[in-house]
Every structure is written in C-alpha cells, then in structure tokens.
Write a structure and sequence with these properties.
Helix content: 25-40%
Strand content: under 5%
Order of helices and strands: HHH
CATH architecture of one domain: Orthogonal Bundle
Shape: elongated
Number of helices: 3
Largest sheet: none
Number of strands: 0
CATH topology of one domain: Histone, subunit A
Distance between the termini: 59 Å
Radius of gyration: 29 Å
Structural class: mainly alpha
Length: 95
C-alpha cells in the first residue's frame, strides 16, 4: 500500500489536519517509510514467539490494604494555613 495525495487528503480530513504543499510531500514520504518498515516486519518469521501482553516483565509490588483509625479532626486541622474552629478556610472562588 502506498500513500498518495488523495489518500493523504482523506487521512488529513479525518484527523482534522491541514498541510501546505511542502508538508504534504514530507508527510507522504514519512508515511510511505512507515508502511515500508511495517512490510519488512511482516516478513519476519515469528512462529514459536509468544505474543506480548506487556512490554515489561516487572510485577507491581502491592502492599496489603490495612485499615487504620481515621485521623482525629483536631489533628487534621493542625497544619492548616487558615482554619475555622472546625473547617479549612479557603479563598472564595465563586462569586
């Protein structure tokens, strides 16, 4: 499959892109290079190669979820820059 101006215009319309004449030529060349590279990948023998579902063999080390008692109200307000007797004070954002 080769990219020509007509196909590029269809792709550009779908992607809501606009190219000038010079950029069109560059984009056609770039897309054709990408498609040529994909064709080369299609020629590689992958029989016996397992499909990847993840690019890394790393496993998330998750800690056990331990429920702790809630933070007391007074302690929660301790480092607040501005506070009322029971609440955080914040600047007004809605008129």
């Amino acid at each position: 499959m080769k990219i020509d101006k007509e196909l590029l215009h269809k792709i550009a319309h779908l992607a809501r892109l606009d190219f000038n004449e010079q950029d069109e030529t560059k984009m056609i060349d770039s897309l054709n290079e990408i498609l040529d590279w994909v064709e080369q990948l299609n020629e590689v023998d992958t029989t016996g190669v397992k499909a990847l579902t993840h690019m890394s063999v790393e496993v998330n080390a998750l800690r056990e979820d331990i429920m702790l008692p809630p933070l007391p109200h007074e302690k929660g307000l301790l480092n607040a820059p501005r506070k009322d007797s029971d609440y955080f004070r914040v600047p007004k954002v809605i008129e």
